[in-house]
Write a structure and sequence with these properties.
The structure holds 2 protein chains of 2 kinds. Chain A is α/β, with parallel strands linked by helices. Chain A is built from 12 helices and 8 strands. The termini of chain A are far apart. The chains are: A alpha/beta, B mainly alpha. The interface between A and B is large, with 68 and 73 residues.
C-alpha cells in the first residue's frame, strides 16, 4: 500500500508529460490536447518539485504545485523569449524533460529510501536530494538567465524589432472588371466591386490606379484613367467611381472579350516609367470565359485564349492577377485559370459572395501588394 | 495510525444519512434548475442595473436555495467537507461562470487587449517595452502566449471567458490553508470560504495578471503562516534584544506590541531543510509575481513586512530580499515605461483628496441606475468591512488573538496613500484584505471554541498572568444567555443563510451592475474584426468611448483614440466639425471610426448621455461629407474618414 502511494505520483508525472507531448504534437487544437496540456502545465512541473518536500498535506501540496508550476512555466518561457529563442514546442519539451527527470529521480528514491518520518521535532525534508535538486535548479536557471541576458543585449544591438510592419511599395495598378454574361450567376450581388474597392483602399499612397471594363464587344471601356493616390480624397474618388459602376446592370450577352481589355490596360501602364511596379487585377467569375479568337498555345481550351495576352504583358514586366468569383466550396471551376497562373507566376484568388468577402481577400491583397 | 484514519474515513463514508444524501442532491438539483432558468435570459432587455435586471425570479430563487442548503449542511452534527466543497464549487460556477453561459462573446473590453498582448508575443516572439506598460511586466503574458500556443488555440478568447471560474476555484486551496492557520474550527473555515466567494465582487479575476497573482499572493502568505512561524524560543531571544528599545515607549504601546508580537499557540516546528527549500520555492513564485504585475508585489511586500515586523513569521530578511527583487525588476526591466510615466507613478503620493476623488467620488456618477450600482458597491464594501470589524472585536473580547488575520486585513490600506492607480486602488485593497475580512465576518457565527483554545494556550503559557485574565473573561462570556441562544445550530443556520442571501444580493448588483457595458456581442466582435481585415497598418481607429472589443490583434500596428477622452461635448452634441478637426490634427493617413453597442451603453451609463447619442453623431458625421459608412451591423458601424481638403494629409 505504502509503495503504491509512493509510486503513484512519479507515474502520473511521467504519463502526464508524455501525454501532453503527444497530444500537442499529434492532436493539436483538440479538446484532449487542451485538457492534457492544461493539466500538465498547471500541475506537473510544480508537483514534481513539491513531491520532494513530503508535506503530507494534500491541500498544501496542490496549492504549492499549481503556484510553482505557473512560476516554472513562466520562467522557462520568459528565458526563451528574452534569449530570442521563442519556440513554444521547445519550451514544452524543456518542461517535459524536467518532469520526466524529476519523476525518474522519484522512482529511484522510492526504491532506495524509506519515507522520512514526522517526529516530535517536526517535519523533515530529505535534505541531500532536496539540496541537490534545488542546486541543480538554481544553476540551470542562473545559466539560462545569464545566457538570455547576453542574447537579449546582442539582439538589441543587432536587430531592433520594427514597430510596425513595413508598408507596401507604391505601384501602378489597373482594375479590369468583368460585367458580362456568367458573372451575374457567379456574383449576383456585385461583390466584385466591393472587392475592387477593398483593393483600392489597400493600395499604398503614391500609387496610381485605373479601371477598364470588359465588354461584350471588341471595345472595352476605360472607366478611370490612371489616378494618383496622394491623399484620402483621391482614394475616396476611386472608391466612389467603383461604387457608381456597381450600379450598372450586367451585360446579358454571352460573350466577353478579355484580350482587348487587357491590351488597353497594358497600354495605360506602358505609358508609365519602366522602373515602376505594374499590376493588372482581373475581377471576373470562376469560368473566366472569353470570346477572343486569336490562337494561343498556352490556353487550355477555346475560352481562355486571353492567356497569351497575359504572357505578352509579363514580357512588358506587367504582372497580372485574377480574383475569380465561385460558389462557396467550388474549387474545380477555376482550376484551368489557376493552373495557368500558377505556371506563369501570377496570383489567383477564388472568392465567393457574402459577408466574409473582406476576410477572404485582405490577406490575399496584402500578399499581392507586398510581392509587388 | 494511518490505517485507523482510513478505517474511520470509510466508516464515515458508509454512514451517509438520508439528510446527507439530500444535501448532495439538493445543490445538484439547484444547479440543473439554474441552468434551465438561464435559457430565457435576454440580454437585450438589460438596463443599467445589470445582469439582475434580466434574471428571472426563479434564477434568483434557486440561488437562495443554494445558500440555505450550504448553511444547513454546515450545521450538521458531522461535518461533511466533500458536500461543502460541492456547494462551493457549484456556487463558484453559478456566480462566476454565468456570463460565459449566457453571453455570446467573452465579456470585458480589457480582455481583448490582453488577447492582443498575447497575440503579439505569439506572433513576434518578442516583447516591446515601449508599446505598453504591460510589456514591461511580461511574465503573465509570456506564460499566456506559451500556454495558448501549447494548446494550439488561435487566441486566448477561445477560453479566457472561463478564467473567473478557474481562478476562484484555485483560490480555495490557499484560502483553506490560510484560514486553517487562523483557527482550528473547520466550520468557521468553510463559512469563511463561502463568504469569500459571495463577496469577491470586484471582478479582478478575469484573464489578467492580477487574477493569477492574487492566487500566488495567497500561496505565499498561507505558506509563510503555515511553515514559517518563529518558534517561541526565537521570539523570546529576539524580545530580550528589543526590550531595551521598547522600554522607551509608552506603556500602552509597549503592551500593544507585546500583545501583537507574542507567539501564536500551537506553532508547529518545521525542519530547517524544509524551511530552506520552501523559502527558495516561495521566492521563485514571488519572482513571477514581480515580473507579472506592477501592483501585486507591493501588496505581498506590505503583508510580509507587517507579519515579519510583528514576529508573525520568519525570516526577518525576507521582506528585504523581496523589496530588492521588486526594485531590481523595476530598475532593470521597466525603464522604458518609467521614462515616460514617472510622474504618473510618483505624482499621486500623499494626495489624499485626489485619491478619494479618483477611487470613490468619481465612480458615483452617471445615470441614476449607474449611480445606484456605485452606491451598492460602496454599501457592500461597508457591510463586509463592518461585519469584519464587529467579528474581530467579538473575537478579541472572547479571548482570541487573531493577530495574523488582523495584520493581513490592515496591511493593504497604506498603499492607498501611495498610489490611486487610476482610481482602482481601493478595489485592489478590498480584494487583498478580503480573505481576512471574510474570516472575521464568518467568525461572528463560530467562536465557541475560545474556551478550549484558551485552555490549551493557558497550559502552554501558565506563567503569563495576562493570559489567565483573558481566559477567565472568555469563560465568563460563554455563560451569557444571548450567546447560548446564538450558539444553537438552527439559529446559526438561519442567521448564516440570511447573511449569505444579503451578501449574494450585494454581489449580484456590485459585480454585474455594469454588465450592460461589459458584455460583448458577436456582432460587435465581427465589426472590429472587419476593421482589422481592411485597415492598413498605420491607420488610426477612433471609438466614441470606452468599451470596444479591440486590440485583440496587431497591437503595434494601429493607433487608437477614444473621443470622450477629449471631446465629450462634441460626442454629446454630435459636433462633426470638432471631430474632423481632431482627426486632421492627428495627421495620419487613414482614419476609421467605430461605434458599437457597448460604447452606447457606456455613454448612457457613465456619462448619463441621452439614448442614441452615437446614432446622432454618426448621422452628423455622414452628413458632413467627410465620412463614408464602410460597414454596419446591428451592433457595430465603421466609418472611413475622407479628407476632402486639398491639403489633406497623406
Amino acid at each position: 500500500m505504502m509503495t503504491q502511494t509512493r509510486w503513484t505520483w512519479p507515474l502520473v508525472l511521467l504519463v502526464s508529460a508524455l501525454a501532453a507531448g503527444i497530444s500537442t504534437f499529434v492532436l493539436p487544437g483538440t479538446w484532449l490536447c487542451l485538457v492534457l496540456s492544461l493539466w500538465f502545465l498547471l500541475v506537473c512541473p510544480g508537483m514534481m518539485v513539491v513531491r520532494y518536500l513530503h508535506l503530507k498535506e494534500p491541500v498544501a501540496e496542490w496549492m504549492l504545485a499549481i503556484g510553482l508550476s505557473v512560476a516554472i512555466d513562466a520562467l522557462v518561457a520568459s528565458l526563451a523569449l528574452y534569449a530570442g529563442a521563442w519556440y513554444p514546442p521547445g519550451i514544452l519539451g524543456i518542461l517535459m524533460a524536467l518532469c520526466i527527470f524529476g519523476a525518474i529521480a522519484q522512482f529511484a528514491q522510492a526504491q532506495q529510501a524509506p519515507l522520512p518520518s514526522i517526529g516530535q521535532a517536526g517535519r523533515k525534508a530529505s535534505s541531500p536530494e532536496l539540496l541537490f535538486l534545488l542546486l541543480a535548479l538554481v544553476v540551470m536557471l542562473s545559466g539560462l538567465g545569464i545566457w538570455s541576458y547576453n542574447m537579449r543585449s546582442l539582439n538589441r544591438t543587432q536587430a531592433p524589432v520594427p514597430k510596425a510592419a513595413p508598408k507596401a511599395a507604391a505601384l501602378d495598378a489597373i482594375i479590369v472588371m468583368d460585367n458580362v454574361g456568367s458573372i451575374a450567376r457567379y456574383d449576383p450581388q456585385g461583390d466584385r466591386y466591393k472587392a475592387a474597392q477593398l483593393f483600392a483602399s489597400m493600395l499604398p499612397f503614391g500609387s496610381e490606379v485605373g479601371m477598364v471594363r470588359i465588354t461584350s464587344t471588341q471595345t472595352p471601356v476605360r472607366v478611370l484613367p490612371l489616378q494618383a493616390l496622394r491623399a484620402n480624397s483621391d482614394r475616396a474618388r476611386v472608391v466612389n467611381t467603383l461604387a457608381a459602376n456597381a450600379l450598372l446592370p450586367v451585360d446579358a450577352a454571352p460573350v466577353a472579350y478579355f484580350t482587348p481589355a487587357l491590351e488597353m490596360a497594358g497600354d495605360m501602364l506602358g505609358a508609365k516609367p519602366a522602373s515602376d511596379h505594374k499590376l493588372i487585377v482581373i475581377f471576373t467569375d470562376a469560368l473566366a470565359f472569353s470570346g477572343d479568337q486569336q490562337a494561343c498555345a498556352s490556353a487550355s481550351d477555346a475560352y481562355h485564349l486571353w492567356f497569351c495576352t497575359v504572357e505578352g504583358l509579363a514580357q512588358q514586366k506587367i504582372a497580372v492577377s485574377l480574383v475569380g468569383f465561385a460558389p462557396a466550396g467550388d474549387t474545380a471551376t477555376l482550376q484551368p485559370v489557376q493552373q495557368f497562373f500558377a505556371a506563369y507566376g501570377g496570383f489567383t484568388a477564388p472568392v465567393s459572395d457574402g459577408p466574409n468577402l473582406s476576410a477572404q481577400l485582405t490577406t490575399t491583397y496584402r500578399a499581392l501588394l507586398g510581392a509587388a | 495510525m494511518r490505517e485507523e484514519t482510513e478505517r474511520g474515513f470509510n466508516k464515515q463514508r458508509a454512514s451517509l444519512t438520508r439528510v446527507d444524501m439530500a444535501l448532495i442532491a439538493l445543490p445538484i438539483g439547484v444547479f440543473v434548475f439554474w441552468l434551465r432558468s438561464l435559457q430565457g435570459v435576454s440580454l437585450q432587455q438589460m438596463n443599467d442595473l445589470g445582469l439582475v435586471s434580466v434574471f428571472s425570479p426563479f434564477t434568483l430563487l434557486v440561488l437562495v436555495v443554494l445558500m440555505v442548503s450550504f448553511c444547513g449542511c454546515l450545521q450538521r452534527p458531522r461535518l461533511r467537507p466533500l458536500i461543502l466543497l460541492l456547494h462551493l464549487c457549484l456556487l463558484i460556477f453559478m456566480l462566476y461562470g454565468v456570463t460565459s453561459l449566457i453571453e455570446e462573446a467573452p465579456r470585458f473590453s480589457v480582455l481583448y487587449r490582453h488577447a492582443g498582448y498575447t497575440e503579439y508575443i505569439v506572433r513576434t516572439g518578442t516583447v516591446d517595452p515601449s508599446l505598453d506598460a504591460y510589456f514591461n511586466w511580461t511574465g503573465f503574458f509570456i506564460l499566456s502566449a506559451f500556454v495558448t500556443r501549447s494548446m494550439s488555440y488561435p487566441s486566448i478568447l477561445s477560453f479566457a471567458g472561463w478564467a473567473p471560474v478557474f481562478f476562484n476555484l484555485i483560490y480555495l486551496a490557499p484560502l483553506h490553508l490560510l484560514f486553517s492557520t487562523f483557527t482550528t474550527n473547520k466550520r468557521l473555515v468553510w463559512l469563511a470560504l463561502w463568504f469569500f466567494c459571495l463577496t469577491n465582487w470586484i471582478g479582478q479575476d478575469y484573464y489578467s495578471p492580477q487574477g493569477l497573482d492574487f492566487f500566488l499572493y495567497l500561496v505565499i502568505i498561507a505558506a509563510l503562516l503555515r511553515w514559517f512561524r518563529p518558534q517561541e524560543t526565537q521570539v523570546r531571544a529576539r524580545s530580550t534584544r528589543w526590550d531595551g528599545l521598547l522600554k522607551h515607549l509608552p506603556t500602552f504601546a509597549r503592551r500593544g506590541y507585546y500583545w501583537i508580537a507574542s507567539p501564536a499557540p500551537g506553532t508547529e516546528s518545521v525542519s530547517p531543510g524544509l524551511r530552506r527549500a520552501l523559502l527558495a520555492l516561495l521566492l521563485l513564485i514571488f519572482a513571477f509575481v514581480v515580473a507579472s504585475h506592477p501592483l501585486t508585489p507591493f501588496f505581498v511586500l506590505a503583508s510580509v513586512i507587517a507579519l515579519v515586523f510583528f514576529r508573525r513569521c520568519a525570516p526577518a530578511w525576507l521582506p528585504v530580499v523581496m523589496a530588492l527583487m521588486t526594485a531590481a525588476w523595476i530598475l532593470l526591466m521597466t525603464r522604458a515605461f518609467l521614462a515616460g510615466h514617472l510622474d504618473w507613478v510618483t505624482g499621486g503620493v500623499g494626495h489624499l483628496t485626489s485619491i478619494f476623488s479618483e477611487n470613490v467620488a468619481s465612480r458615483v456618477s452617471g445615470s441614476p441606475d449607474h449611480e445606484l450600482i456605485a452606491q451598492m458597491r460602496l454599501l457592500t464594501t461597508a457591510v463586509v468591512w463592518g461585519l469584519a470589524f464587529v467579528g474581530c472585536l467579538w473575537r478579541i473580547r472572547r479571548g482570541y488573538r487573531d493577530v495574523d488575520a488582523m495584520l493581513l486585513a490592515i496591511a493593504p490600506f497604506p498603499l492607498l496613500v501611495v498610489q490611486p492607480y487610476g482610481g482602482e486602488m481601493l478595489l485592489r485593497i478590498y480584494l487583498f484584505a478580503l480573505p481576512c475580512m471574510a474570516f472575521f465576518g464568518a467568525s461572528l457565527f463560530y467562536n465557541e471554541q475560545a474556551k478550549a483554545q484558551a485552555k490549551e494556550y493557558a497550559s502552554e503559557h501558565a506563567a503569563s498572568g495576562q493570559q489567565h485574565r483573558q481566559n477567565r473573561r472568555s469563560t465568563r462570556l460563554l455563560k451569557t444567555p444571548a450567546l447560548r441562544l446564538f450558539a444553537s445550530p438552527r439559529w446559526k443556520a438561519a442567521l448564516t443563510a440570511g447573511l449569505s442571501i444579503l451578501l449574494l444580493a450585494g454581489f449580484l448588483f456590485a459585480r454585474y451592475g455594469n454588465e450592460r457595458q461589459d458584455y460583448m456581442t458577436n456582432a460587435e466582435v465581427a465589426g472590429v474584426q472587419y476593421l482589422y481585415n481592411i485597415a492598413q497598418p498605420g491607420a488610426i481607429f477612433i471609438a466614441g468611448t470606452d468599451g470596444t472589443p479591440w486590440q485583440s490583434q496587431d497591437f503595434e500596428k494601429y493607433n487608437l483614440f477614444v473621443l470622450t477622452d477629449s471631446l465629450l461635448s462634441a460626442v454629446a452634441q454630435g459636433n462633426a466639425a470638432a471631430i474632423t478637426q481632431f482627426i486632421q490634427d492627428k495627421a495620419y493617413t487613414v482614419a476609421y471610426l467605430i461605434f458599437t453597442r457597448s460604447q452606447e451603453a457606456t455613454l448612457e451609463a457613465t456619462f448619463d448621455a441621452a439614448p442614441g447619442t452615437l446614432d446622432r453623431l454618426e448621422t452628423a458625421l455622414l452628413a458632413s461629407g467627410n465620412y463614408r459608412l464602410l460597414y454596419s451591423n446591428h451592433d457595430a458601424r465603421i466609418l472611413l474618414f475622407i479628407d476632402n481638403t486639398e491639403e489633406g494629409t497623406s
